[in-house]
Structure formats: C-alpha cells, structure tokens
C-alpha cells in the first residue's frame, strides 16, 4: 500500500453554518481532498462570501460529522456511497427543498457534487467547480524531480489503480481516467465512467435531464495546476486517445455524443469557463467575492 499524508489541523465540530432566514438562494459546499467541511480554510471561504452577501445561508456537506473522520473520508472510502450519503443529507435540510440552491465543489468535491445532481436530481441553480477533474486525472499529482519516495508511491498506485479493492476504497483512484488506456477505464472504473455516462450501452437519461436543468455550470481552471493532470480536465476537456493531445470541449465526445446534457448547456452559453492563474486551489478573496456577486444569492 502507498502512504497517504494526512493533514491534521484544529478541528471544530457542528454540522451547519449559522445562518439568518432570508429568501436568498442558499449555497452548499463540497470540500476537497484532505480538507474537512469546517476547516479554517473553508471558514475563510465562507467569510469571503458573507462579506459580500451576509444574508447567504451556507451549508457544507460532510461524510462524517467528526472532522478528522470527514477528512479521512476524502482520501479513503467508496465515492458511490459518499454521494448517496450526501444526497440523503441534503434531502433532509428543509431549506433546500422548497427553493433552488447553488452548489460549489472544490477539486474532487466538484465531481462528487455533479454526481449528486445527476443521481439525485437536487434542486440546483448554479454548479460552480474549482479545479475539478471532470474528465478524470490521467496521472497522479506530479512529484518533484528529487522526490524519490513520491515517484515510487505513484508508480505503485498506477500499477494497482484498476484493482477492485483500490477502486472501492481509494478516493482518487475513483476518478482516474487515462485516455491512452481507455479500455481499462471502461472496464474497471467504479465511479467516473458511470457519472460521465461513457458506458456505450448504459447511458443514463436521468443524468442528462438533471444536468440540462442547471442554470449555469461554472468551470474554474487553475492556470498553473500541477495537481490535476491534465489541468484542462477542470474545463471538461479531454485528451486524444492515440496522441494524448488536449481536445477542447466542443470536440470531445461529451459534446459530440452529448453524453451528459452538456451540449445543450454549451449551445445555450450556460457553461462559463474561468481561469485562476495560480496553482491548484490557490483562491484569493477577490475571486471569491466576484463569484459571490456574479453567481450566488439573488
Ligand atoms: C464551523 O465552526 C465555526 C466556529 O467554531 C462555527 O461557528 C460554525 O457554525 C461551524 N460551521 C459548520 C459548517 O460546522
Ligand atoms: C439512472 O440513474 C437513476 C438515478 O441514479 C437511477 O435511479 C436509474 O436506475 C438509472 N437508470 C439506469 C438505466 O441505470
């Protein structure tokens, strides 16, 4: 087994952000890998939103109310089960039933948020994802040249990525997708191949209907991302299955075969492509405020 680095930080408990009653659309977050639903990093984000729109109700989903277990679940667990847990959680929040809400996913959390919308038909207005590898990662986060241990670990995980027990337990393996080894992905992916509707005879029309009903899909890419490989996966771009060259969205099968309902969104100009010219998940307050003004609340 390879080694996972766990980041420990001050842990705080309590499932829901305090909020005032208002008729502004609520916002729901799904945090990224190694983070927790109410970490200090997440709280900084909530504050940036509230500095622009104090009336926003903010919810942050969790797999476990205990923050260290929640963090662990972002690394180890079965994503299909996690999506189901979050669907149940969101369906139990009354405020999210009688009005639409906006859903923000950080990194892998953005794919999982999309999966929840596809599968559970949540009442979502805008889906906003930051550096989320929607068309998978074809490589593991790059190691620095001198980091021998990291390289060994990556090589080991890559050899094992399609094993059933890895697909069912290592979160990052569940969105691994190497277009140069596409057959292995089609055969063995336990999660992404389904939510991306890529199985030739098992296209799920519900997923298409649910994504088509979004008001906006906002895809944010980090210009200097070396964690998500290739970084353009955040824009739902693909790679050529022979050459590995980048394919822009209208030339991908997601568009040409309309696998997911994104063709309609794209044609109606409902997909916004934004860039943050920085490394993975380096999000400044100004950017968060801009997102709040443009896409959140009323
Ligand atoms: C996060 O922690 C803060 C400070 O302890 C608390 O006020 C807030 O309600 C918590 N939010 C969530 C989502 O748990
Ligand atoms: C499509 O997805 C929905 C929602 O997850 C599920 O209820 C349904 O069984 C799926 N249909 C097929 C054909 O797999």
From TrEMBL:
<dbReference type="InterPro" id="IPR002472">
    <property type="entry name" value="Palm_thioest"/>
</dbReference>
<keyword id="KW-0732">Signal</keyword>
<keyword id="KW-1015">Disulfide bond</keyword>
<comment type="similarity">
    <text>Belongs to the palmitoyl-protein thioesterase family.</text>
</comment>
<keyword id="KW-0378">Hydrolase</keyword>
<dbReference type="InterPro" id="IPR029058">
    <property type="entry name" value="AB_hydrolase_fold"/>
</dbReference>
<keyword id="KW-0325">Glycoprotein</keyword>
<dbReference type="Pfam" id="PF02089">
    <property type="entry name" value="Palm_thioest"/>
</dbReference>
<dbReference type="GO" id="GO:0008474">
    <property type="term" value="F:palmitoyl-(protein) hydrolase activity"/>
</dbReference>
<protein>
    <recommendedName>
        <fullName>Palmitoyl-protein thioesterase 1</fullName>
        <ecNumber>3.1.2.22</ecNumber>
    </recommendedName>
</protein>
